[in-house]
Structures are given as structure tokens and as C-alpha cells.
Amino acid sequence: MTEDVRPTLHQHDQERLDGLAGVRKDQAVWEHQRKYERSTHKYLGEDVLKDTGSAVVWWLAKNDEQVERTVEDLGMLARLTSAVNDTDVPERLRALIHNAISGGVQHGPVIQSGRIAGLTFHVHGPGLPVQD
Question: I need a surface site. Which of 71, 89, 103, 110 has the fewest CB within 10 A?
């Protein structure tokens, strides 16, 4: 009766098993990262940024000593929550939004955002007809 039996594995088979083990480990890491991303997405979208009030409360919880800055940033938080929820900024918060244009407007008006309707531009220049 044989007592000294040792299984052997060809090197090619061992390399293949090692490769498969590496792929399984990489997949497990990727799945955990994806689960974390989904959890973060859900938390931000459904809790933190569901509306401006929730965003303000979250911001103050993270930055409790920056109340004045939070008040200054209310317009930005309103725009952010509106963008996340694909809605317009509520009317009551629109006065808090301050658009600043820096640089020149050498080539005409600059429109940053919003809805523009019913504009008429009168352009005068060489070779252009004068509009009344």
C-alpha cells in the first residue's frame, strides 16, 4: 500500500489558476467600489441634495462654524439642488442667486443662464442696414 502520494500540477495549470484567482479578487474589489459609489449616489441624491433645506442642514453639520459663509452660499446650494433634481430654482430662492460676469463683453451681451425670450438686438455697423 502506498502512503506517500503527492498530487502534482503542471506549471501551465498553476499559472491559469493564479490568473483566475487574481481576476476573482479584482472583481470583488470592483464590486465593493461600485456598491460604495451607488450608496454615495443614493445618499447624496435622496438625502443631502433632495432640496435646498436638506443641503443647508448637511452643509452646516459638516461646517458648523461657517454659518455666515453658508448664508452667502444659499444661492449656490439652491442651484446645485435644482441641478441634481433637474428642476428650476424655486421662485423664493431666485433672489439669492448672484451671477457675476468677469472679463470683457467686447463682442456683445453675455447670457450666463436662465430663460431669455422676446429680445431684439439692434446692431449698427459698416455695411449693415439701420434698424428702427
Answer: 103
Q: What are the pLDDT digits (tens) for 92-101? A: 888 888 766 5
What's the CA gap between 38 and 43, in Å, rounded?
9
Burial class for 32, CB neighbours closer than 10 Å (0-12, 13-18, 19+): exposed
Phi/psi-derived region of residue 72, left when phi > 0, alpha when psi is between -120 and 50, beta in every other case: alpha
Does the pTM of the predicted model rise above 0.85?
no
The residue ranges of every structural domain in the chain are 15-96
What is the CA angle 6-7-10, rounded to 5? 135
Q: Is 65 exposed, middle or buried (0-12, 13-18, 19+ CB in 10 A)?
A: exposed
DSSP class of 91: G
